[in-house]
């Protein structure tokens, strides 16, 4: 058995997690049922009074073997899985997967479909961030914000339900396009919603961002410096909150993202509040992208949403492909290896939350338990994505 | 953890003021009309675009017979293997009487020399079941169906006591729906019927 001295921080399984040499410490489990662990994350902590001496996330409570499933299902059949990997940003994952297969098979995507994908992905990003916003404040003990966030999110889901038919685990992307066109009525309602959502930000700011209680709970808490973020491979708002100006949409443009003018919010502080601000500002930027996409969509070439869809028994040519996009939680990467048969030879999913969570063991050491909740929430975890 | 810096009096006041501002937002929302739905007394009205479980589509002239041609494409494409389609068995072969072949035909055209052609199975399903417990609502079955025999239902308020309740026999379901459908209007409706339907519509 591993001795305490040999342990690498956050790197041993819980069965090796023993009390340290100090007499007055206590080992407790935070989660998997604790609300702040979003369902199924278990964190084993060694506490010295209120202070955390060590904390170690334990995964495996929701393992659904998506990657293995990818090897047994055809390219088509694997599509609905994407909505389940990260159920809050289903569009982002599906977008990455279809792009990977399209790159592999040289499938053409009509311009209109690209715009629709961007609009839907960005809307989904906002809905994901809104839910995070509400849930984070709920973790910190405020109940009202989640109600407001849900009310706003509901309007968005109603719009997205029209073309997709679902409200959470969308299966909307198809190889070579999308499932259904956005009707003029839907485009109009998106326009109206963008205006409405813009008017809501001041309310969010008044209610929460400027609130002294929130500031007290998140300012100077869980400071991740630039080096540490790079060391753990953090991406997305976590990295951008630590001063790393990296966004896949800007740095390695895919789809039609290079046609839009938007900023990448970056904050240097690296604390939980910086990550909070990055996400809030990102929602505003997503609105900008949607607005520009709405203006450009009618000028897009052709009216096709799928030009030539592959059959359900589609065989991708042998080869390997890697596709990376910017998800709501960071860089989504999908590596598909094909041997030329109907099913992929191997699929590897790179979930941003996994790298971001690995920061936690180092971050939480030395803080008090209440701050650990602030830190955990600020990383924006979706456990099914981490434990895919 | 960094040390918290000492606040001046005015800074403290400014910080406390943020609570008043927040309270104002809560107050405003408090007097707004209610936006939640009092389910089950009320239901939402955006169900028409909802992608419910799949159901069969009847032929335009025979609404109780599915359009399905048993091509099995939906079964192949379904990621969850929740669709089962059973084709109708071919009818029992009757031995073809040899006398049926015309005698004056040249030898090559004599059908009797080949094996009698097998009777083709009718392209009608006898069983079409959906195990909705497993369905992931991906919608690929609807998309790949060559004759558009499947569509989404608007059934969203589902409840049951066991998993068995969600194993649907969609052929029976189609018959049931067809029976409830108003009969297609005959081309020249007798006046009495027209009157009746008009009365019904008014009522
Ligand atoms: S919607 Fe998808 S999972 Fe459901 S029956 Fe159709 S193909 Fe199968
Ligand atoms: S794809 Fe359509 S026609 Fe083919 S078996 Fe399924 S329902 Fe029948």
Descriptive notes:
Chain A: It is found in: Cell membrane. Chain A: InterPro entries: NADH_Q_OxRdtase_suD, NDH1_su_D/H, NiFe-Hase_large. Chain A: It is an enzyme of class 7 (translocase). Chain A: This is NADH-quinone oxidoreductase subunit D. Chain A: It is a peripheral membrane protein. The complex is a heterodimer of chains A (388) and B (203). Chain A has a single domain, classed as Cytochrome-c3 Hydrogenase, chain B. In chain A, strand 7 and strand 8 (346-350) form a beta hairpin. In chain A, helix 2 (79-85) runs antiparallel to helix 3 (90-105) and helix 5 packs antiparallel against helix 6. Mean pLDDT of chain A is 88; it is low at 1-11. The two termini of chain A are 28 Å apart. Chain A has helices at residues 66-72, 79-85, 90-105, 111-139, 144-164, 184-209, 212-218, 226-232, 236-240, 248-251, 272-297, 352-358, 360-364, 369-378, 383-386; strands at residues 26-30, 42-48, 51-58, 173-174, 177-178, 319-326, 331-338, 346-350. A 3-stranded antiparallel sheet of chain A has the order 1-2-3. By secondary structure, chain A is mainly α. In chain A, 47% of the residues lie in helices and 12% in strands. The longest helix of chain A is centred in the N-terminal third of the chain and has 29 residues, at 111-139. Chain B is elongated and about 105 Å long. Chain B has a 3-stranded antiparallel sheet. In chain B, strands 1-4 form a two-stranded antiparallel sheet. Chain B has helices spanning 9-30, 73-77, 140-144, 170-180, 191-202, and strands at 54-56, 83-87, 125-131, 150-152, 167-169. Chain B has a domain at 66-89 and 122-175: 2-Layer Sandwich (Alpha-Beta Plaits). The termini of chain B are far apart. In chain B, 27% of the residues lie in helices and 10% in strands. Chain B has 203 residues and is an alpha+beta fold. Chain B is built from 5 helices and 5 strands; from the N terminus they run H-E-H-E-E-H-E-E-H-H. The site of one iron/sulfur cluster has 13 residues of chain B, from helix 2. Residues 54, 77-80, 82-83, 130, 135-141 of chain B line the site of one iron/sulfur cluster (SF4).
């Amino acid at each position: 058995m591993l001795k305490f001295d040999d342990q690498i921080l956050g790197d041993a399984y819980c069965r090796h997690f023993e009390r340290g040499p100090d007499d007055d410490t206590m080992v407790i489990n935070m989660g998997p049922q604790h609300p702040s662990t979003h369902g199924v994350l278990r964190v084993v902590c060694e506490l010295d009074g209120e202070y955390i001496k060590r904390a170690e996330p334990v995964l495996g409570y929701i393992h659904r073997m998506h990657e293995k499933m990818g090897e047994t299902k055809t390219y088509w059949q694997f599509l609905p899985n994407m909505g389940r990997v990260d159920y809050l940003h289903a569009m982002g994952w599906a977008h990455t997967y279809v792009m990977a297969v399209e790159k592999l098979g040289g499938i053409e995507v009509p311009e209109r479909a690209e715009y629709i994908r961007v609009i839907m992905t960005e809307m989904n990003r906002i809905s994901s961030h809104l839910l995070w916003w509400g849930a984070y404040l709920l973790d910190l003990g405020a109940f009202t914000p989640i109600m407001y966030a849900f009310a706003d999110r509901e309007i968005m889901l109603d719009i997205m339900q029209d073309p997709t038919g679902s409200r959470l685990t969308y299966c909307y992307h198809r190889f070579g396009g999308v499932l259904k066109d956005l009707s003029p009525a839907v485009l109009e309602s998106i326009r109206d919603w963008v205006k409405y959502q813009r008017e809501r930000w001041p309310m969010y700011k008044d209610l929460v961002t400027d609130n002294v209680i929130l500031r007290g709970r998140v300012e100077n808490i869980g400071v991740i410096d630039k080096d540490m973020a790079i060391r753990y491979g953090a991406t997305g708002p976590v990295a951008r909150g630590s001063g790393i100006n990296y966004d896949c949409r800007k740095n390695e443009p895919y789809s039609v993202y290079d046609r839009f003018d938007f900023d990448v919010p970056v904050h240097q502080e690296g604390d939980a509040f910086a990550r909070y601000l990055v996400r809030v500002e990102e929602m505003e930027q997503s609105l900008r992208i949607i607005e520009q996409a709405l203006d450009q969509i009618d000028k897009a070439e052709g009216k096709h949403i799928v030009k030539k869809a592959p059959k359900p028994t589609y065989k991708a040519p042998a080869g390997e492909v890697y596709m990376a996009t910017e998800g709501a939680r960071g860089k989504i990467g999908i590596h598909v290896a094909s041997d030329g048969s109907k099913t992929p030879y191997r699929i590897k999913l790179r979930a941003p939350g996994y790298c971001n969570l690995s920061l936690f063991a180092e971050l939480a050491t030395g803080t008090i338990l209440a701050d650990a909740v602030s830190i955990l929430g600020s990383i924006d975890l979706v456990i099914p994505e981490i434990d895919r | 953890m960094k040390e918290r810096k000492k606040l001046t009096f005015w800074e403290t006041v400014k910080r406390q003021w943020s609570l008043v501002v927040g309270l104002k937002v809560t107050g405003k929302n408090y007097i707004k009309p209610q936006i939640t739905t009092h389910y089950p007394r009320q239901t939402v009205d955006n169900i028409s675009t909802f992608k419910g479980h799949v159901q069969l589509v009847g032929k335009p002239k025979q609404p109780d017979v599915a359009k399905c041609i048993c091509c099995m494409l939906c079964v192949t494409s379904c990621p969850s293997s929740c669709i089962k389609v059973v084709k109708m068995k071919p009818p029992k072969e009757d031995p073809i009487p040899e006398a049926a072949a015309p005698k004056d035909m040249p030898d090559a055209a004599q059908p009797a020399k080949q094996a009698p052609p097998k009777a083709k199975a009718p392209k009608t399903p006898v069983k079409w079941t959906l195990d909705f417990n497993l369905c992931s609502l991906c919608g690929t079955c609807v998309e790949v169906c060559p004759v558009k025999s499947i569509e989404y239902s608007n059934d969203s308020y589902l409840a049951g006591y066991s998993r068995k309740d969600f194993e649907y026999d969609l052929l029976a379901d189609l018959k049931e729906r067809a029976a409830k459908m108003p009969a297609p209007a005959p081309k020249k409706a007798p006046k009495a019927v027209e009157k009746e339907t008009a009365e019904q519509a008014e009522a």
